[in-house]
Amino acid sequence: MSAAAPPPVLAVEGLRKHFPIERGLLRRATAHVRAVDDVSFAIERGTTLCLVGESGCGKSTVGKLILRFLQPTAGRVTLGGVDVTRLDEQAMRGYRRHVQMVFQDPYASLNPRLTAGTIVGEPLENFGGMAAGERADRVAAVLARVGLRADAMRKFPFEFSGGQRQRLGIARALVVSPSVIVADEPVSALDVSVQAQVLNLMADLQDELKLAYLFISHDLGVVEHIGHRVAVMYLGRLVEMAEKEALFAAPLHPYTQALIDAAPLPDPHARRRRLVIEGDVPSPIDPPPGCRFHTRCPFAVSRCRTEEPALRETAPGRLVACHLREDGSMAPLAG
Prior knowledge:
Blueprint: E1 10-23, E2 28-43, E3 48-52, H1 59-66, E4 74-79, E5 82-83, H2 89-98, E6 99-102, H3 116-127, H4 132-145, H5 162-174, E7 180-184, H6 192-209, E8 212-217, H7 220-226, E9 229-234, E10 237-243, H8 244-249, H9 254-262, E11 312-315, E12 318-320
Parallel strand pairs: 3-8, 3-9, 6-7, 7-8
Antiparallel strand pairs: 1-2, 1-4, 4-5, 9-10, 10-12, 11-12
Helix pairs in contact: 3-4, 3-5, 4-5, 5-6
């Protein structure tokens, strides 16, 4: 008898965030921006779920909802079985110790008036329970673990390169020993060579500390390097989720196929047939009926225009929201 799978460290169920659009003197809500609309996934300890999609699809909003920077309209976020969407302000302090964030911009996310030692040590001071000397030792150890020397503690952010600043951001997240890190485009502002260094550092830290990552990105090359599972978002909803290798080898949703085809190939002489999608992303204020992708999908049929597809498991570990995949077919779609 096989052992039961370990419970996820973080689970998201039916998560929604609708921003009201208020007009008139009484500021009444006349419409809503459906930024996140029924998103569910789970992340196991020591694994990375990459959340990908075009700009404006809602992936960064998902990260903010998990951290309770924003209050969900509906749905649940559970950490170790505890529904954190119902925690009060005092209880949230304890939760945030276990879920930390690495921000996209290593320049704007660090206080320019504080030294690196103060920036990294600030979370320890906020949560309390550690003497000043012990706190300094902990900060020095974490800085060393992310590849920064001890004298970095006395420097200000402007004295570091972009890659070193992002290492500071990672150190700040690590210093309170979290179980989950939400990384929102953490390498998009860095040079390619520095990106590889930061990604390798994050992978090494995950192996050593068994961290769970929610890695938000639009760069499929980065996703292919660091991810274990990939969830694809379009207009506030998940359209496909699978193990990384399976998704890149045979994407099932037309939108996933188009994203992969749009990524540049490392070989300048290589050629491949591309699935090109036309038109603009519809407004999240008034998403189209049926499948939200049907207005740009070259394979759409009449059912796609009227009935919204559910995210279904078509093979073990593979979920896709597409009417054309209900028979479990893995073959490329034909228009």
